[in-house]
Amino acid sequence: MLLKYGMPVLAVITLTLSILSVRRMTPAVVQAQPPSPPPTAAFANQVGAVGLVEPATENIGVSLPVSGLVTRIAVQAGDTVRRGQLLFSLDDRDLRAELALRETNVSLVKAKLSKLEASPRPEEIPPAQSRIDEAQALLEDARVQLRSMEAVKDQRAIRQEDLLRRRRAVESAQARVDQAEANMRLLKAGTWKPDLEVARAELRQAQAQVQRVQTDLTRLQVTAPIDGKILQLKVRLGEYAQSGILAQPLILMGQVDQLHIRADIDEKDAWRFKPGASASGAVRGNATLKYPLQFVRVEPYVIPKRNLTGDSTERVDTRVLQVIYKLPKEASLYPGQQMDLSIGAQ
User: Is cis: bond before 34, omega within 30 of 0?
Assistant: First the structure.
């Protein structure tokens, strides 16, 4: 009796429990709405593109003319700067020492030039005049002795050799007078003009060396190339900053008063694009927030795609045509933000 009715009852109970268990474990299908609606077509015929917000001046990666140790940072990310404003400085101790040396050399050359330009000194005239007077006195004495010897009537009383010596003495005294007078004229004439030109050239050279060191010092003061905003700051105090082209710019800046969008149009759709075509852009994460876009220019060279969205299904071997559009002034967006663009096409 138990076997006849018990087994079917047990089977029915087991089946019922299995059905209940399966129904309880089966997930319920709920029609959930997406967090934000996807972008919708803005034109009957359109080209879709991904746009990247950038400053009107494009992103400017500030670089260095020379490498060096960072000793001062004058700005932070988000600061608004004016053209020529200091961004950061490099170590300049060696150039400061060289500048002091060059400035000392300029002072020395200036002193030499001033000395040449001030020649002759008033104190040098009396000694020179005294030498002339002395030479003239010796000349007069030699002439007196010669006249006294020539006045002897009997030439046999003197030797011809002594007479010749007296005459040579007069000639020597005359030469000394001429030399003293020439020295006086040379002294009064001042410094020779070519010597002054050489001294002035040496001064210009010394000043040029100072200017060169000052130029090298200004190269260690990195300043803003334009009026704009600091978008990224990748330099730290005490780091050694490298010059040249870097994978990550030390400072990224640009003018954010007016924002642009750089749209990447797939080369397969490039033939459908017309310069000046109307466009609109939807903000990533909020497709209802759309902005009308104004055409600026097209860069007519197809390049490999560089602006990636990060989507796992995105193709990275695509070539794109880049088109620049202007955002409205009231658009509240940040440089580097991505947008979905709808561009009117043929």
Answer: no
Closest CA to 343 of 272, 259, 267: 272
Question: Are the C-beta atoms of residues 187 and 21 closer than 8 Å to each other?
Answer: no
Pick the CATH number of 64-91+220-254 from 3.90.1150.10, 3.20.190.10, 1.20.120.350, 2.40.50.100: 2.40.50.100
Question: DSSP letters of 200-219?
Answer: HHHHHHHHHHHHHHHHHHHH
- As a whole number of angstroms, the distance between CA 322 and CA 92 comes to 43
Q: Is there a contact between 344 and 303 (Cβ–Cβ < 8 Å)? A: no
Class of domain 105-208: mainly alpha
Please say whether the beta carbons of 241 and 250 come within 8 A: yes
The two three-digit tokens of residue 286, written as one number: 């909020």
Q: Which residue has the higher pLDDT, 295 or 161?
A: 295
For 308, which DSSP code? -
Q: Which of 77, 76, 74, 72 is nearest to 89 (CA)?
A: 72
Q: Is the pTM of this model over 0.70?
A: no
How far apart, in Å, are the Cα atoms of 148 and each of 16, 143, 152, 154, 158? Answer: 170, 9, 7, 13, 11
Kind and range of the H or E run holding 297: strand 286-304
Q: Give residue-wise pLDDT tens across range 218-243.
A: 999 999 999 999 999 999 999 999 88
